[in-house]
Design a protein that fits this description.
3 helices; alpha+beta; about 25% strand; Ubiquitin-like (UB roll); about 25% helix
């Protein structure tokens, strides 16, 4: 099963208690769900909607490319890929 590096930023990093980790899975969705299971607490509710969809305010990049431009959470991953998750950014 592919091993993927996952990098977390700002509030997700604070909620998880680490900035990066390695997770095994076949798709981006599987990786993120396994990460949420591992971290527990409010992390899952921050990342996912109640129906299992990714929170629309988060940007998830697979090797620097937004997963929205591919198959979303169904995007397949390969060994050594990097997923970066960016939470909403405030400003005005």
């Amino acid at each position: 099963m592919p091993r993927v590096e996952v990098k977390l930023y700002t509030i997700l990093r604070e909620a998880a208690g680490f900035k990066e980790t390695v997770v095994e899975g076949r798709t981006v969705g599987e990786i993120l769900n396994r990460l949420a299971d591992r971290v527990g607490g409010k992390f899952r509710s921050m990342l996912f909607e109640d129906d299992g969809r990714l929170n629309k305010f988060y940007i998830v990049l697979l090797n620097g490319r937004n997963i929205v431009l591919s198959k979303g959470l169904d995007t397949p991953v390969s060994n050594g890929d990097v997923i970066a998750i960016f939470p909403p950014v405030g400003g005005g």
